[in-house]
Amino acid sequence: MVKRRKAWEKSNKRRNKIKRRIPREGYTAYRNDRRTLGRGVFILVHNDIITVEQTELVTNCEIEWVKIQLKGKKELLIGSFYMPQRNMKCVEELEKSLNMTIARNTNIMLTGDFNCPDINWETSTVNSNANDKEIQNKIMKLTATFQLTQIHELPTRENNLLDLVFTTNPSKNAPCRHIRS
Predict the structure, then answer these.
(1) What are the Endonuclease/exonuclease/phosphatase domain coordinates in residue numbering (predicted)?
(2) Does the first or last residue of the chain, that is N or C, have fewer Cβ atoms within 10 Å of its Cβ?
(3) What is the DSSP string of 57-122?
(4) Phi, psi of 19 (to 5 degrees)
(5) What's the pLDDT score for residue 138?
């Protein structure tokens, strides 16, 4: 399974290079595109995995959800989220989306670019000199409220951990791998 925020590039050469790295044959793409030029999010799932798009969980932010029903197990909701700039509206829309998942009594995996470089996930704190500290504290509060554990540990841009992977069941997850495009 691949989660990615999509990039719109002015150069066709660059766009084609990115497209070649993303497998298409034998996969289903679930997308939530911006209504303007630019990014959006998608989840790419191999056709051997039975999934259903969960459009009712999508709120007014860049988020996409799919459900995987595992035989004899709880369903698994996979979400892909992107916050281009830190703003409270995106965080509030994410919270609305997560609230809708609670009633399902399910496992959740939420991935995405949260653009919150000042959060220390080992100590669950926000750096005291952080820009937009209120927003980053709200992200921390959401992870506690929804019992989400952040499991991705590799920096994604310079020394910053921006691409995050949250789960409600960290013991059931394989290690994360970041592939640069």
Answers:
(1) 77-174
(2) C
(3) G--SSEEEEEEE--TTS--EEEEEEE-SS--HHHHHHHHHHHHHHHTT--EEEEEEE---TTEETT
(4) -60, -35
(5) 97
User: What pLDDT is recorded for position 161?
Assistant: 73
Is-contact 78 104, C-beta < 8 A? Answer: no
SS3 at position 172: helix
- CATH number for region 2-172: 3.60.10.10
- Torsion of Cα atoms, 172 then 51 then 110 then 122, to 10°: 20
Kindly state the tokens that stand for 107. Answer: 């496992």
Amino acid at 83: M
pLDDT over threshold 70, residue 4 = no
Amino acid at the residue 116: C
Angle separating helix axes 88-102 and 133-145, nearest 10 degrees: 0
| Residue 16 pLDDT class (50, 70, 90 cuts) | very low
